[in-house]
Write a structure and sequence with these properties.
globular; 314 residues; 13 strands; four-stranded parallel sheet; six-stranded mixed sheet; alpha/beta; pyruvate-formate lyase- activating enzyme; 15% strand
């Protein structure tokens, strides 16, 4: 993997979008390109005009490289002292602080420590890397101020197919194990099921498995999101799944590349998630994150008739 260093200006930034999602008021990102190389990732589209890509000679939609700021813990420490109105910081919002590259410099642990050293701050950890378990000692020292979450994108039965799309992330088995360990230690946890792809994690049975898992780890919140249909992500996922021999799943992903099919998939997903949470958990915990711009009007009206737990964005 090609590793690039690029200095960023801010350590902690206000994040109105993530505040709308109910995730955090602030965000901290250790770079602009994550080493997990998830094929459906939308970060490249969000940051495509960032000067770091040109400076490093990389395509924002490419793979096989990372761009990180090795001095980010110093910037975070500076901002944690400077900002007067303090609150919840998500580590991270666009890249993963425990991904390859960032992990080699211990950026996740060092940034978390820099935030928690200052009173009034709390942290929401989000990662796909089991290496975060090595930093539970820091979390335990500030257990009331840290929420631990791992992005779990498939039930265990689909762990092999999802690994095709998340080549450098920890396995679903390891992520589940880490979240169970966090719960066993009495740490605060939340569930992050984003995105739930068709053919992998959208059937009622698959969603039930995930929701029951959230209950088993005492998750304070359950976040769910459909896959983003913009950009090359769906095409890349379909091609990779096809090449790996998962033809049925590849066909399901290819199917929702059409707007009408994506819209129906989202409306069906909302209903299945609501039904499962109502049966196994508490609807006050559900945060179904939804950008509605590509929904067909009929599907939007269908969701609006019962949008309990839906967070309308955009």
């Amino acid at each position: 993997m090609r590793k690039h260093h690029y200095p960023l200006h801010r350590g902690i930034s206000r994040s109105t979008e993530f505040e709308k999602k109910g995730l955090a008021c602030y965000g901290c990102n250790v770079g602009t390109k994550c080493g997990h190389d998830c094929l459906y990732c939308s970060t490249g589209a969000v940051l495509r005009m960032h000067p770091s890509f040109k400076a490093c000679g990389e395509n924002p939609f490419g793979f096989g490289y990372t761009i990180i700021d090795p001095d980010m813990p110093l910037r975070v420490a500076r901002d944690a002292k400077r900002i007067r109105k303090r609150g919840l910081v998500q580590l991270c919002t666009l890249v993963d602080a425990w991904a390859p590259g960032a992990r080699g410099l211990d950026l996740g642990r060092r940034c978390m420590w820099a935030i928690l050293k200052e009173p009034g701050w709390s942290v929401r950890v989000l990662t796909k890397n089991a290496a975060v378990e090595d930093d539970f000692d820091v979390v335990e020292m500030h257990r009331d101020r840290v929420l631990v979450g791992m992005s779990i994108t498939a039930p265990l039965e689909k762990s092999e197919s999802i690994s095709v799309l998340e080549p450098n992330a920890s396995s679903i088995e390891k992520r589940v194990e880490v979240m169970r360990e966090a719960a066993a230690r009495g740490l605060r946890t939340y569930a992050m099921f984003c995105p739930l792809l068709p053919g992998i994690a959208d059937s009622p049975e698959q969603i039930d498995d995930l929701v029951r898992f959230a209950v088993s780890i005492n998750a304070e919140e359950i976040f769910v999101e459909p896959v983003n249909s913009r950009g090359p992500g769906l095409r890349l996922c379909q091609e990779a799944l096809e090449a790996a021999g998962y033809r049925d799943v590849a066909a399901a992903v290819d199917h929702i590349r059409k707007r009408a099919c994506w819209s129906k998939y989202v409306a069906d997903l909302v209903r299945a998630v609501q039904s499962s949470v109502r049966r196994f958990s508490d609807m006050s915990k559900l945060r179904f994150l939804l950008y509605p711009s590509r929904l067909l009007e009929a599907d939007r009206r269908r969701i609006e008739r019962d949008d309990e737990g839906v967070v309308w964005l955009g």
